[in-house]
């Protein structure tokens, strides 16, 4: 269990930023589900839960999700389902249990760049951008390539658009982290494919997605699967070998394309 | 490491509490320290659901919530839903759904949360909602029978005042 010397429920992002940069041992508290497993000693735990960052807002052309929004809110949000189908529900409903998802925050998952994150994989294919207090606005795909720094993730913004989506994962047992996660989206401009838990961080596969016409035939799907297996790196860990994940990638993409074109 | 105490003010099962706590004290330890011993520590890795309580009516794992975060909030433990819990316990006994009983407090808290959140859940929805409640004795089949029987008989299980 980690240790805290002080707990501060900040009243503004300015206060949170000031505290974060006043001492290298101060830390932003998200859902704390992962953090509680550690044994580090921190000075001040900076709690953002009173800043109203736990909301899902329709801003007209975007959906904005606050960083402290919990996974259960994302799972059950009618606004998200209306705009993006069941991709969020499918991505998070296998994560431990309801009690866990009532605590785990979207910001905690994304900011920590958890490589096993189902939700980061889903967010990638929706064209999501992140808003950082110091670092400003940037595509999630770029953000996930950076190292965790000392900034505050404020919100995520997803453009509203005509889109068909699907999220699929393979798990060794229910509620476990995925062996591999795959998200696919089809917009009028083309397809997007992202794979997570490879076991490294989720990443888009633009070359493979570019091979898919709006309604691909089986050969074109095979070509896209082969391209994904080339384009993205896969690795081994106790949940699965590199070869197994490479094979699974093709299986999940085929299923995803079939689900969207059905 | 020298720590600064944090003053937390909240309600637990409807009664007000104001306590000075360590900033990293977990809700499970806070509640058990106050005598709410229904809450059990199981896995201590946020997986088993034994420590489930409600914070502002939402089921959460008390082993993962800093007690400082419940300042201004309403906490409900099994002791606060005794009448409903006892009604459900009858169905568990009838179906042999309680063996060692260690997971029961957390399971009951999550079943009662599900009852409030979902209307007429299907068996699949029940299983999905309770996926975070592990039991190493029953194999879940008897629990499912008890839950389905309880939900089917709901009008007779409603608390008759004074309960939360």
Please describe what this structure looks like.
- The complex is a heterodimer of chains A (262) and B (164).
- Chain A has helices spanning 13-22, 71-76, 78-84, 87-92, 98-101, 106-111, 118-124, 140-143, 206-210, 218-231, 242-261; strands at 3-9, 27-29, 41-47, 56-58, 62-66, 129-132, 136-139, 153-159, 164-170, 180-187, 190-196, 203-204.
- Chain A has 262 residues and is of the alpha+beta class.
- In chain A, α10 packs antiparallel against α11.
- Chain A starts with a strand and ends with a helix.
- Chain B has 164 residues and is an alpha+beta fold.
- Chain B has six helices and five strands.
- A five-stranded mixed sheet of chain B has the order 2-1-5-3-4, with helices on one face.
- The longest helix of chain B has 14 residues, at 82-95.
- Mean pLDDT of chain B is 91; it is low at 157-164.
- The chains are: A alpha+beta (262), B alpha+beta (164).
- The A-B interface holds A 1-7, 9, 29, 31-33, 36-37, 41, 45, 47, 49, 72, 93, 96-100, 102-103, 174-175 and B 1-4, 6, 22-24, 26, 45-47, 49, 52, 58-61, 63-66, 68-69, 71, 110, 113-114, 128-133.
For this entry, give a set of tags:
heterodimer, A: 262 residues, alpha+beta, five-stranded antiparallel beta sheet, four-stranded antiparallel beta sheet, 11 helices, 12 strands, B: 164 residues, five-stranded mixed beta sheet, 6 helices, 5 strands, 35% helix, elongated, disordered C terminus
């Amino acid at each position: 269990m980690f240790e805290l010397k002080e707990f501060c429920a900040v009243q503004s992002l300015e206060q949170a930023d000031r505290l974060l940069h006043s001492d290298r041992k101060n830390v932003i508290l998200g859902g704390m589900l992962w953090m509680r497993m550690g044994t580090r000693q921190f000075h001040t735990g900076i709690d953002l839960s009173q800043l109203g960052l736990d909301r899902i807002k329709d801003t007209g052309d975007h959906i904005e999700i606050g960083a402290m929004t919990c996974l259960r809110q994302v799972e059950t949000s009618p606004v998200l389902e209306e705009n993006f189908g069941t991709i969020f529900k499918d991505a998070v409903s296998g994560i431990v249990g309801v009690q866990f998802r009532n605590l785990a925050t979207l910001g905690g998952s994304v900011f920590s760049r958890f490589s096993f994150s189902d939700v980061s994989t889903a967010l990638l294919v929706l064209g999501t951008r992140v808003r950082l207090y110091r670092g400003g606005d940037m595509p999630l795909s770029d953000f996930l390539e950076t190292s965790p720094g000392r900034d505050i993730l404020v919100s995520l913004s997803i453009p509203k658009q005509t889109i068909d989506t699907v999220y699929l994962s393979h798990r060794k047992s229910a509620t476990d982290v995925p062996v591999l996660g795959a998200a696919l989206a089809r917009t009028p401009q083309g397809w997007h494919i992202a794979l997570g838990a490879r076991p490294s961080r989720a990443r888009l596969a633009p070359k493979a997605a570019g091979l898919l016409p709006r309604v691909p035939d089986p050969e074109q799907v095979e070509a896209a699967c082969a391209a994904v297996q080339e384009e993205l790196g896969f690795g081994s860990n106790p949940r699965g070998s590199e070869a197994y994940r490479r094979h699974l990638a093709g299986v999940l993409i085929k299923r995803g394309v079939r689900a969207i074109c059905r | 490491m020298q720590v600064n105490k944090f003053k937390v003010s909240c309600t637990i099962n409807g009664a007000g509490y104001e306590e000075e706590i360590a900033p990293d004290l977990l809700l499970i330890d806070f509640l058990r320290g106050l005598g709410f011993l229904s809450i059990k520590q199981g896995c201590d890795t946020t997986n088993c659901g034994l420590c489930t309580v409600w914070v502002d009516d939402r089921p959460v794992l008390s082993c993962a919530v800093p007690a400082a975060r419940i300042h201004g909030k309403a906490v409900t433990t099994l002791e606060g839903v005794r009448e409903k819990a006892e009604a459900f316990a009858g169905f568990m006994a009838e179906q042999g759904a309680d063996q060692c009983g260690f997971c029961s407090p957390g399971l009951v808290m999550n079943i009662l949360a599900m009852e409030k959140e979902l209307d007429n859940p299907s068996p699949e929805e029940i299983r999905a909602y309770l996926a975070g409640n592990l039991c190493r004795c029953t194999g879940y089949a008897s629990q499912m029978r008890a839950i389905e029987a309880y939900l089917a008989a709901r009008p007779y299980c409603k608390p008759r005042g004074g309960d939360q």
